[in-house]
Amino acid sequence: MANWRWVAFAALCIALQSITSGESRLQKRSDELAADPLQTTISQLSEQLTAMKSQMTAEGNRIAALEAKMNSLKRTVAFHAVSVDHIHARGHSPLVLPVAQTNEANAYDVSTGFFTAPVSGLYIFRTNFMCADLTTYVHADIYVNGVYVAGSMSDCRRGYLDSVSTEVIARVQTGQKVNLGNPDDSTSAYYGHKYTTFSGFLLQAD
User: What are the phi and psi torsion angles at 3 (to 5°)?
Assistant: First the structure.
């Protein structure tokens, strides 16, 4: 009889241990299940926050680009250069007008005769010139980045001074240069006293 009781007691202990272990595993699983929705929510919020940061960065870049665009639109770019003395320009060389009466943005170089575009956009350039020798004629061409875009000829061989002008609208990129040039093979003389001019201005920025 005593052995039976010990066997029953041992069986009861084993059963209780099994129940306790099962409850522990059940509680652990319950905790895991309870934690999963919270972890999922945290992950979702983290992803949304990352996406919002990316959107804010993109929006900030867009605003910065718009501000730069507005600043370029507000910028005044214009020049008007003349020469008091007659100009003697060698063949296939720039005409250098050494006096800048207007030089907004300081884009015209009086030492070289080149205008360097500080802003990309649509520009208007104009020249007025006249030959200084009544026995010959002269040409003056407008070049954009070294490429001929327009030109005229002043012909004084008829015995009187011939004043001509040329105007061109051209799209110029930032850093490109625009200049007047003598396309002839020989040196040409251009009338001074501000009769020979070169001017331009930004019509619309890109």
Answer: -65, -40
Identify each DSSP E strand in 29-146 by its residue range: 78-82, 87-89, 93-94, 99-104, 114-116, 121-130, 137-144
For residue 76, give the amino acid letter: T
What distances in angstroms separate CA 165 from CA 54, 97, 129, 151, 199, one per listed residue?
55, 15, 6, 9, 11
pLDDT digits (tens, 9 = 90+) for 38-59: 677 777 777 777 877 788 788 7
- Contact between 142 and 156 (Cβ < 8 Å): no
Residue 56, token pair as written in the block: 């804010």
Residue 129 has pLDDT above 70, yes or no: yes
Q: Reading across the β-sheet that carries 78-82, which strands appear in turn?
A: 99-104, 78-82, 197-205, 121-130, 163-172
CB 189 within 8 A of CB 90: no
Strand partners for 37: none
Residue 105: what residue type? A
The gap between the terminal CA atoms of the chain, to the nearest Å, is: 106
Residue range 56-103, pLDDT digits in tens = 788 778 877 777 666 655 679 999 999 999 999 999 999 999 999 999
Residue 1 DSSP SS3: coil
Q: What angle do CA 61, 63, 65 make, to 5 degrees?
A: 70
Measured distance CA(72)–CA(198) in Å, rounded? 23
Q: Is the pTM of this model over 0.70?
A: no
